[in-house]
């Protein structure tokens, strides 16, 4: 009926306006002093560049390349390509106002064969990533949640 439609439109508009009002009041100052705004990532999900600089295969590489194991047969060979775009990504974190960045290390990039010889290119990559984070002021020591 027309009355029902009018009520529905009125309620929808009210919700949209109220949501916009709440969002406009929600900002960094809405959080307690010392609150850390940050982001985190997992090497397999963000690095990509699986064939760059001597990186070895991981269990997930093998699994994701097995037909039928992953929907659509996708894999993380490229992912978000942070291995090659880390400078751009650290700039984005700075622009977003992030205070912290937690990342994991792909051990197959450090020890290509699982053990033995160190892959210096992999070590160099992580050193460059850490240097870029330091240059943007994104690397500081924070207490772990379980120590609070």
From TrEMBL:
Keyword Hydrolase set for record: yes
InterPro entries, per database record: GH, GH_1_N_CS, Glyco_hydro_1
GO molecular function, one term: beta-glucosidase activity
Keyword check for Hydrolase: yes
Keywords recorded for this protein, A-Z: Hydrolase, Signal
First and last residue of the signal peptide: 1-24
Pfam families per UniProt: Glyco_hydro_1 (PF00232)
GO biological process, alphabetically ordered: carbohydrate metabolic process
Family: Belongs to the glycosyl hydrolase 1 family.
PANTHER family reported in the protein's UniProt record: BETA-GLUCOSIDASE 40, GLYCOSYL HYDROLASE
Name of the featured protein: Variant 2, Beta-glucosidase 40
């Amino acid at each position: 009926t027309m009355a029902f439609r009018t009520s529905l439109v009125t309620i929808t508009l009210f919700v949209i306006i109220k949501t916009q009002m709440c969002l406009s009041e929600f900002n960094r100052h809405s959080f307690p002093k010392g609150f850390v705004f940050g982001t985190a990532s997992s090497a397999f999900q963000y690095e990509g560049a699986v064939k760059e600089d001597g990186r070895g295969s991981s269990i997930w590489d093998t699994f994701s390349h097995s037909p039928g194991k992953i929907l659509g047969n996708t894999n993380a060979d490229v992912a978000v390509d942070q291995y090659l775009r880390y400078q751009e990504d650290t700039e984005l974190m700075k622009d977003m106002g992030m205070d912290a960045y937690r990342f994991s290390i792909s051990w197959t990039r450090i020890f290509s064969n699982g053990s033995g010889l160190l892959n210096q290119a992999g070590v160099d990559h992580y050193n460059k990533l850490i240097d870029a984070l330091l240059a943007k002021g994104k690397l500081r020591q924070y207490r772990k949640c379980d120590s609070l």
